[in-house]
Design a protein that fits this description.
The protein has 17 helices and twelve strands. It is of the alpha+beta class and 430 residues long. Strands 1-2-8-5-3 form a five-stranded mixed beta sheet. Strands 4-12-9 form a three-stranded antiparallel beta sheet. A two-stranded antiparallel sheet has the order 6-7. The two termini are 17 Å apart.
Length: 430
């Protein structure tokens, strides 16, 4: 294991915790995107969980907000839709009204019942158990094709060659999108979550350029939509399902809802799978005892996948808006307040997970993570993500003694998606 492989874990030391503990509580702003680009977020959440688990931040780039940092409190908010609304102001900490040339989108994850359930039910058959079982062989074929093309003993970027490539292929299959244009789906996903409130001054694209590029997304999917509408028999891809679903068949007439739901499905199919593919490699390098355990007990792969999803937690937060005054953790949350569930913190909650900062591939309660959300808004594609990760690691373990991290990881400074932008590795054959 190289020194760079332990870089992330070494950022959380007693000294850094003591420095964070010396700050006035009201100065702690866990929405600062740099915390995630630098991977220095752990001591801030550790202090909030310990001292102020329902924490009010009076000022940030996204305005004032409440931070919910413990596992149990996150579940309480995520399941109380009568009090905490997804629809009132959206699902991310970003406020559209605070941006110039803002892109206002509508999608079913940012809807309350009954609209949420009506629209979600249209596309949920795509990831029903029977469809997932049929897709496993396709996933394995793509995994093997990708792994067949990788060099052994030569450094390459795992993110680009494996994580992005597998995710792009599966997204193209789900949408029946032209395979040669599959990387466009990844690009549209990335720029969807690249606004200034989520990324601060490191945002790589202006709102104007985002609008222009996402306009290309609308054009491409409108053409697909019209073609699928004209087919005598509906297909089983997501576009066909939306175009023919009773609750969604007129969606193309509302550009904000049309683009919003397409981007929701693209982002949902991209970020968790893609970043956990890379985060899992990084975690096994940080904890070589777990890699040793995996080599001796490959039957742990399904549980390891859940643990990797918990450890990585690719969706850092979800936001709700209080509809009425509410009490939580001894605090009074007022109607209209922004309430942010920090899934990343909930999955490192010491009261829920023993030794939570460590990857433990045989962890007994690994599946009790909140990385996919909880309740009616739980990620629709969670099982598909798990299958892709399981199949990938089954094939990796039949080919390689180790996927070794050989250089520094490059992370995205983003408070919504915990993205890994680059991960240099070398493969060691069995």
């Amino acid at each position: 294991m190289t020194d760079t492989a332990t870089a992330a874990s070494s950022t959380y030391t007693r000294e850094t915790q003591e420095a964070v503990d010396s700050l006035p509580l009201e100065q702690i702003d866990v929405s600062n995107a740099r915390l995630y680009g630098d991977d220095t977020w752990r001591p801030y959440f550790a202090r909030l969980r310990r001292e102020d688990p329902v924490h009010y931040c009076p000022d940030s780039a996204s305005g004032p907000f409440w931070s919910i940092t413990r596992h149990a409190d996150i579940m309480a908010v995520d399941t109380n839709h009568e009090v905490f609304s997804s629809e009132a102001k959206g699902i991310s900490i970003a406020d559209v009204e605070r941006e110039e040339n803002a892109l206002e989108l509508e999608n079913f994850i940012a809807m309350d019942e009954p609209r949420h359930g009506q629209q979600r039910s249209v596309v949920s058959p795509s990831v029903a158990p029977r469809n997932l079982a049929n897709m496993e062989s396709l996933i394995r074929d793509n995994v093997n094709d990708i792994l067949d093309g990788l060099p052994v003993g030569t450094t390459f970027d795992w993110v680009d060659h494996v994580a992005v490539e597998l995710t792009a292929r599966m997204l193209a299959v789900l949408f029946d999108f032209p395979m040669q244009d599959r990387r466009k789906l990844i690009r549209w996903s990335d720029i969807t979550t690249a606004n200034e409130q989520l990324m601060g001054e490191d945002a790589p694209i202006s709102n104007e350029d985002r609008l222009r590029e996402l306009g290309e997304c609308v054009v491409a999917f409108t053409e697909l939509w019209n073609r699928r509408k004209a087919q005598p028999e509906p297909g089983f891809d997501l576009v066909s399902m939306l175009a023919n679903g009773e609750a969604t068949k007129n969606m193309a007439d509302n550009p904000a809802e049309f683009l919003g739901n397409l981007l929701l499905l693209i982002v949902g199919g991209n970020d968790t799978t893609r970043n956990t593919i890379s985060g899992g490699v990084l975690a096994l390098n940080e904890f070589p005892d777990q890699y040793d355990l995996l080599r001796g007990r490959v039957e742990l792969i399904p549980n390891m996948v859940s643990e990797m999803v918990r450890w990585q937690t690719s969706v850092i937060h979800m936001r709700r808006t209080a509809l009425v005054d509410a009490e939580l953790g001894g605090k009074t949350i007022s109607a209209g307040d922004k309430v942010v569930m920090w899934y990343l913190s909930g999955n490192r909650d010491e009261s829920k997970f023993d030794n939570p900062d460590k990857l433990i591939i045989d962890r007994k309660n690994a599946r009790q993570h909140v990385a996919f959300g909880f309740g009616v808004h739980r990620c629709m594609g969670n099982r598909l993500a798990e299958i892709q990760l399981r199949v990938l690691w089954e094939e990796i373990m039949q080919r390689y003694q180790m996927v070794e991290v050989t250089g520094p990881v490059v992370r995205s400074p983003n408070n919504f998606i915990r993205g890994i932008a680059e991960l240099p590795v070398q493969l060691h054959a069995l």
